Amino acid sequence: MAEIVKMPKQGLQMTEGTILKWFVTEGAQIREGEPFFEVETDKLTLVVDSHNTGTVLKLLAGVGDAVPVMNPIAIIGNAGEDISELLPQSPILPEKITETVPVVESVTSSSRETRFSGDSGERILNGKFVTPRARKIARETDISIADIAKSFTGSKISSRDVLAFAETEKARIKASPVAQRLADEKGIDLASVKKDGARIMKADVSAALMRGTSSRRGERLVPFTGMRKVIASRMLESQSEMAQTHNRIRVDVSELVALREKLAEGGIKVSYNDILVRLVSRVLPEFPYVNASWTEEGILLHEYVNMGIAVGLDEGLVVPVLRDADMLTLAQIAEQGGALVQAAREGSLNPDDFSEGTFTLSNLGMFDTEEFVAIVNPPQAAILAVGSIIRQPVADDAGDVVVKPMMTLTLSYDHRIVDGAVAAKFLQRLKQLIRNPLLVY
Questions:
Q1: Both 91 and 236 in a single domain?
Q2: Residue 173 pLDDT > 60, yes or no?
Q3: Between helices 330-346 and 272-283, what is the axis angle to 10°?
Q4: Cβ proximity of 60 and 96 under 8 Å
Q5: C-beta of residue 73 within 8 angstroms of C-beta of residue 61
Q6: Which residue has the higher pLDDT, 99 or 199?
Q7: What CATH number corresponds to the domain at position 433?
Q8: Last residue of some domain: 39, 66, 101?
């Protein structure tokens, strides 16, 4: 009996997934546990295995399609089985339902030139896939997909390819040699004097020069990716739904630096972040409201510490979670935390690696950022922002001015959960342990 395959929900925050690749074609056989498709979520890319055994009767979503979770993407059953009643009737995925995923290898050379017919045809042209978003942008910018396909060497035309082609076309400005030479000499951008496709002459450049037209830089549109959209949504949600405020404290980290140096001498490599994770994880159980989450039913106090470690990537910010951090040794924190950071940079994190965090530590000290205010990661109650270590003149206990390594810590917190005095005491206790890290080593 045929069954509908739906877009799986990979993690609590996932709302949709983008199909990057199908490992099967319509009519192919697939077994349970075999790779079925590759999907990009807001935080990671992963291969999803099949939970069914049978024949792939229909692919309802194409490469490049963003599909809401739990929406149908394929049908698996017995060969020749009638699936008309299983085909989605609602226009949830209009292009995805009417346009099955064509397979380049199955298209004959004589038909590759004719299988693209606008909005209703199959999404293949000259042996190249064309994503729905690419077609949409092409229509909006009056760009011919056929023109792109003629010079495009890849196998899939995406929205980025359309935008790049549009920029290239925009740069192709017809100008006479004299006009081009004058523009170069005077620093005139020919795009500023473009005449609706007509050839630019010397008089046009001269007129632009008289108007004081100067060289202009262009613009480049970076489309929102799944990760960037989720980051924007989550940050807006955090700022609009929380009563956020923050406390700041400066700490002498002389003992922290000395501890790291001593460990290095003994062949134990740890980062300042590892030590801070260790110290913060030991302080949090003493302040349960800082290690809490907001729910509609009330404030959820966690008896465990799952430390979120903010990792900045080129595509955006991810926060993998180091579970039971308060139960780990410093060496274990360094090993497990390092593995999470490496997996984040390689894009190989699992959905579970992002879930159930109770507190987040964000460190920008390695980028010479002296201090900053981080935004709380909902539904958590707080986040600690760590700045760089700066050698500064300070007064010691005897009143003498000495130079010491100092660090600024900023605790952002949801004032609905954490009172100002509690936040201050948390930072005060953390300061005490930073100045005496061996107390918890």
A1: no
A2: yes
A3: 120
A4: yes
A5: yes
A6: 199
A7: 3.30.559.10
A8: 101
- Residue 14: which of 411, 355, 343, 283 has the closest Cα? 355
Q: How confident is the model at residue 165 (pLDDT cuts 50, 70, 90)?
A: confident
Least confident segment among 8-22, 115-129, 131-145: 115-129
d(CA 177, CA 202): 9
Nearest to 381 by CA among 417, 410, 354, 411: 417
Residue reference for tokens 């979520």: 41
In this structure, the answer to whether residues 97 and 238 fall within a common structural domain is no
φ, ψ dihedrals at 50, nearest 5°: -75, 140
Can you tell me the distance from the alpha carbon of 203 to that of 206, in angstroms, rounded to the nearest whole number?
5
Look at residue 77 and tell me if it is in a domain.
Answer: yes
Q: Does residue 91 sit in the same domain as residue 230? A: no
pLDDT at 14 over 80: no
Identify the pLDDT of residue 107.
Answer: 35
User: Does 327 fall in a domain?
Assistant: yes
Among candidate residues 328, 430, 308, 431, the one with its CA nearest the CA of residue 376: 308
pLDDT (mean) for 426-437: 96
- The CATH number covering residue 79 comes to 2.40.50.100
Contact assessment for residue 159 and residue 138, using Cβ atoms and an 8 Å cutoff: no
Q: Is residue 215 situated within a structural domain? A: no
**pLDDT average, residue stretch 238-250:** 86
Residues annotated as catalytic (active site), given as ranges: 415, 419
Q: Identify whether 323 is part of a domain.
A: yes
Give the three-class secondary structure for 307: strand
Range of the domain at 90: 3-101
Q: Cα-flanking dihedrals φ and ψ of residue 147, to 5°?
A: -65, -40
From 101, 130, 145, the end of a domain falls on 101
Q: What is the Cα–Cα distance from 249 to 384, expressed in whole angstroms?
A: 11
Domain count, the chain: 2
At residue 105, the 3 state secondary structure works out as helix
pLDDT in tens, 374-406: 999 888 999 999 999 999 999 888 888 999 999
Residue 136: which of 190, 95, 99, 76 has the closest Cα? 95
Q: Which residue has the higher pLDDT, 32 or 430?
A: 430
Whether the predicted pLDDT of 97 surpasses 50:
no
Q: What pLDDT does residue 295 have?
A: 87
**Count of CB atoms within 10 A of residue 314's CB?**
5
Q: What is the mean pLDDT of residues 65-72?
A: 87
